[in-house]
Write a structure and sequence with these properties.
Structural class: alpha/beta
Order of helices and strands: EHHEHEHEHEEEHEHEEHHHHEEHEEEHH
Distance between the termini: 34 Å
Bound molecules: pyridoxal-5'-phosphate
Oligomer: single chain
Length: 397
């Protein structure tokens, strides 16, 4: 996957925005608050220091809360979201296991590829990029043969489609498969109800709606997933061994690896902000800014790719007017306006940009700023829109 921020080497005769003033409105990392930055600058503690273990305990409790679960095995894996995916796959897939993966974007493809590399017999249930997965097609695939694991991506960051997890969870359970979900982008931005839905295992990342830096992968395993993990014929990598992880993250606090103390401190600060705001108001804020952005786009000659009722609030895929040079557009946003947005991926490359309004970045002021910048950058390419109308529509939404 190539996702190179365009124009980071500014040279066109105007000053580039300095890095400390960049506004991260791409698909992640999202902006972090001053409080989270300060937490990263705090003195190091030992990874077995009682003071740090208290932080770790608070982080694990906070993650249970955002995941909507009482699972004891809920912890931050050291590594980015992809490490969380590998941890799930290493523990829930054995060579020969049948795995059904819903693929409606790049992250579903990666989930499927990871399971294939572990030796899983992977069946992909596909939907067009920009459309939602069909629960009936998924059900048919799961029902066709005994299935060990059924997996989907909650919020597909490559397209901006949000899945209603309920029918997929129901199908998995009906057929005795474990149900696993990629919650990297959805966690803390929309409700993730692991226990209510009966999600057996889920993973996430810190740099999307949690607004901590990239580098940790929150994961949660329920009892059925743990039972599978602990009865594997082919053990997982040492680093992802649930028994050994429990040795450190459980009451024994036995050394397994050196926890990334600074990252955990940053996540602790980010979670404190989530709970100070409240999960529900935070999710409402994400919905509000997405509605504002969508309302402003038409006046600029742009349209969201995904219908509002299917769309992720934290990431909006924007179809560009025909003939727009997307790379030049992103480059200008970066150099002149100091705003990072994401490129289109896979079949959408060149035709769209992806605007993330995640966590600390999900604010009306940022919606207005990106719409104004977009209008200017499109006008620069000879496609002027009505910026004043776009701003008014966004503010009124
Ligand atoms: C960002 C993302 C990932 C990968 O996370 P990394 O932190 O980049 O490893 C996986 N799935 C989804 C849906 C994502 O948005």
């Amino acid at each position: 996957m190539t996702e190179v921020p365009a124009g980071s080497a500014g040279s066109a005769g105007y000053a580039s925005a300095p890095a400390d003033e960049l506004l991260l409105l791409g698909p992640g990392p999202s902006p972090v608050s001053a409080r989270v930055r300060a937490a990263q600058a705090a003195p190091l503690l030992g990874h077995l220091d009682p003071e740090f273990l208290a932080v770790l305990e608070r982080v694990q409790a906070g993650l249970r809360s955002v995941f909507g679960t009482a699972n004891p095995f809920t912890l931050p894996i050291a590594g980015t979201g992809t490490a969380g995916m590998e941890c799930l796959v290493a523990n829930l897939v054995e060579p020969g296991d049948r795995v059904v993966v819903g693929v409606h974007g790049v992250f579903g493809q990666r989930f499927a590829e990871s399971a294939r590399r572990r030796g899983g017999a992977v069946v992909e249930v596909r939907a067009e990029f920009g459309a939602a997965l069909d629960p009936a097609a998924f059900a048919a695939a799961v029902a066709a043969a005994p299935t060990a694991l059924a997996a989907v991506v909650h919020a597909e960051t490559s397209t901006g489609v949000l899945l209603d997890l309920q029918p997929f969870a129901a199908v998995a359970h009906q057929h005795g498969a474990l149900f696993a979900v990629d919650c990297v982008t959805s966690l803390a931005g929309v409700p993730v109800e692991v226990d209510v839905l009966g999600v057996d295992a889920a993973f996430a990342g810190t740099q999307k709606c949690l607004s901590a830096p990239p580098g940790l992968a929150p994961v949660t395993f329920g009892p059925r997933a743990l039972a599978k993990a602990q009865s594997l014929r082919t053990p997982p990598p040492f680093y992802f061994d649930t028994g050994l992880l429990t040795g450190y993250f459980g009451p024994n606090r036995a050394y397994h690896h050196t926890a990334p103390v600074t990252m955990v401190a940053a996540l602790d600060a980010a979670l404190a902000e989530v709970f100070a705001e409240g999960l529900a108001p935070r999710q409402q804020r994400h919905r509000g800014v997405a509605a504002a952005l969508r309302a402003g786009l038409p006046a600029l000659g742009c349209a969201p790719l995904v219908a509002a009722e299917l769309a992720t609030p934290m990431l909006t895929t924007v179809c560009l007017p025909a003939g727009t040079d997307d790379r030049a557009l992103r480059s200008r946003l970066r150099r002149v306006h100091g705003i990072e947005v994401g490129a289109g991926l896979g079949p959408l490359a060149g035709r769209v940009v992806r605007i993330g309004l995640m966590g600390h970045g999900a604010r009306l002021a940022n919606v207005l700023r990106v719409l104004a910048a977009f209008g200017e950058a499109l006008a620069h390419q000879g496609r002027p829109g009505d910026v004043a109308a776009a701003l008014a529509a966004a503010a009124a939404a």
